[in-house]
Target: Putative glucose-6-phosphate 1-epimerase
Amino acid sequence: MNIYKQILVSTTESKLLSSSVKQTKFGELPILVIQHKSCCAAVSLQGAHLLFWQPSTEQTPVIWLSKQSKFEKGIAIRGGVPICWPWFGPLGTPSHGFARIVEWTLDSCNEDDDGVDLVLVLSNNQQTKPYFDKPFNVSLKIHLGKTCEVALSCSGEFEATSALHTYFGIDNINHVVVKGLGDTYQDRLTVENKPVTIGQMTFNQEVDRIYTNANTEITISDNVRTIKLTTTNASDVVTWNPWIDKAKAMADFCDDEYQSMVCVEAGRINKPLKLSLNEQSTYGFKIELI
Ligand SMILES: O=P(O)(O)OC[C@H]1O[C@H](O)[C@H](O)[C@@H](O)[C@@H]1O
Model:
């Protein structure tokens, strides 16, 4: 049974929250399983982490999850949409911030014919204290239907960097073309800033780039489908594929999985979110098939 099916059929400590949403447990983690006429999906309360999303028109999930991901307390999940906050990458410890490894609270769960709307929230508390000592509030709105929409809002008295580190499921990395990335990027593999003139990418080696001037509309195409990613209020778009050697080195990623995923991540890295306690700062994305 594949990982998606295993999650969908999980019944451990299962309780129904609405007609299409049940709360259950997978591994050590409480999760929400969504089976709506428009899509199926799952969200982990640890990290407010969307694990996967598959519109009912699709044969395979558009948001992808590694079959080797851990579902353990305090360990980041491999795949889905990790929430990197309040820092991106190695700017602090743990890498990509603490929001993805602590448990959030489900604030609301609503549904209608279009899909399911969830709001998950996190404020400074005993879990977050070892990582960060300033007060904050962060909330994540997720719409799961024919489209998938994610918006992160936060407040506090500090600057935060962040990424919505989305793993897209693709047919074959050799056939993928990502368009709309703009003409400048920082290469995280060579450290220098390299200007480029074309705003599109194909893949034949490890990549780890922060595009600093991407269009708000980006497309990810393979031979099977075209996914449109529309970002709102993002300053950067990160593209990442670990390729062969890094895939082998990652314990929570199968050796061949680099062929079936690509990360294209809306972020606030070069223009951090300048937070205040009185006002929410928000950025996010929408994904649809075109
Ligand atoms: O392994 P993780 O901490 O989840 O990070 C996975 C990747 O995330 C981003 O895309 C970064 O740009 C990469 O440098 C990093 O390797």
Notes: The chain has two helices and 22 strands. The pocket of 6-O-phosphono-alpha-D-glucopyranose is lined by residues 76, 89, 95-96, 165, 188, 208, 238, 240, 263 (CB under 6 Å).
